[in-house]
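Hi, here's the filled form for the chain we discussed.

Project: internal
Contact: R.S.
Residues: 655
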Amino acid sequence: MRRNHLTLFAVLMAAATACSGPVQEIRQVPFNEVNISGGFWKDRMETELRTTVPFSLEHCAEAIGRFEKCVDFVEGRSSELPQPHRFISSDMYKVLEGAAYSLMLESNPEIEAKIDYVADLIARAQRPDGYMYISHICGNPYPDEMGEKPYTYVIHSHELYNMGHLYEAAVAYYQATGKTNLLDIAIKSARHINHVFFEGDPNYNDGKPVMQAPGHEEIELALCKLYKVTGDRLYLDMAKKFLDIRGITFIPDGDGVNSPEYAQQHLPVTEQREVAGHSVRAGYLYTGMAQVDALTGKNDYSEALNAIWDNLVSKKMHITGGLGACRSTEGFGADYELPNRDAYDETCAAVANVFFNEGMFLASGDAKFLDIAELSLFNNALAGINLAGDRFFYVNPLEADGEWGFNHGHKGRAEWFGCACCPPNISRLILQAPGYMYAYDSGSIFLTLYAGSSTSIPMKGTKVALEQKTDYPFSGSVQLKVNPARSCRFSLKLRIPTWVGNGNFIPGGLYTYQDKRDDAVIIKVNGEDVECAVADGFAVIDRKWQSGDVVDLELPMSVRYVSCDEHVENNRNCTAVTRGPVVYCAEEADNGCRVQELTIEPCAEAGVSAIGDGALKGIPAIRCQGSRPVTLIPYYAWDNRGDAQTMTVWLRNQQ
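And the returned structure, exactly as it came back:
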């Protein structure tokens, strides 16, 4: 229920003469309008509510303490200054965002009070002009990391990155509760940044517009969210300005983390054609570009984005959806540089991969982008958090030998990290997964991520209630009840993933099936088989729908054997095993040996059965043939039974 607040937000909205809302044709049904009713995501949501969200809030104590010290200093109660830090506030903002999403699933006065307490601290710490960055407000920055003064070292200070995550938290909390306390702070900050960066403020940069894009992208996509929830065109225009000045008004001159490529500042964004630099920064940049294209309808970045996407999925992405294979830069390497044991594949990069591809779908309507979003979500992203919801991966290799600290010094999962960007990132992604399940335009409803869920969608002057039942991704059976308030004609579009076919596991040609099968997709309406045209990866059922109509979709869920492009040296003469969108791996706990010793017989018959007990109880395991029987589990579920486990996704072929 929305609550009445006479606030800065309300005043600005009343006075706004900007556009009344987004103009994009395809719109997501937002997370707060989708109810998760059962299955895979219901279990994950329960874990978030019971464990991850309160656990994460507890680990925000240091970040919250910095705000408390800042407020005491600003209000003259103490001279003790908070320790300088570039980005710890952003980690807290992501935790707040996730906590806000959780309130849509279940009311929790204690969590809501905690968010309100922190929001009050932020508001009191924020300068009257809207500036928000603790180390500069308190006058004790590390100049080499933050600059002597505000906005003097935008390439590395994370000032704008932090604000982007604050904006996302503010939007989520407003959507969840109707409260504008965080949103008021975000609006005040965004208007300040617009003034300083694009108009000029005498208190910053000698009054000249800063006109520099941030070194770590994030504010661009956050401004798009701020625009969508307020309808104020200023924020969309700001997002576009930050994109359009990148690689033009400032180009760094250095190596490594100071190189132009590291922060995607080597070329104007419209001229970029390959993924480059730090993988999380890149993913957030491409997300911002895709979202601005979708919201403006101009497609100013579509040529660049499509080339970048092709380069990514055909040459630089792991089969798990992981991005940024190189540890040295946490970024992209050369074409086909995809190590297994030494892969970096940061959890945050997988989250960014989901955001990017969701944005590409909204701008184009092509389901191939959803295939990649789904791949990253069910594999690399979910691997970033354990099944209990309280241990995390920062790094996600495709092979582990059980003997070294691949995970930022940890042999396995960690309780938290000093740089804690990944734990709240995967948490907030899981909690907003309901927002990736349905989309619509003026004449179509899209089923984009199958899950036990229900929602109601405006269509042709009426409301269409949908109720979906499925055990996806472990079952390909989906039943959808369609209940329009009055009968009307529209197209129902059911996503038919690339992995259903006989060619590629995913778009791009990097990962191809060894086995050819005749499994068919079956679609029924009210019990009768229907043949549907497939367009842009969707089976289209165009008809006049009546209340009580039932659609049944059957996607084949066979075990499949996958080869990698021969250009990837590490994967020659090796096989990966998949089922549906899920990538499987061999772990020592199931096989009783170092899994590097195992071989596999490609295309042999395989069995699927649920694990009977333990941490993985109920999860389907695959049993294949090789030099000995090989048991495989979903990649996302590895390292839930002890940290000294060997693991591999790619198994050597039996000779």
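Let me know if anything looks off before we file it.
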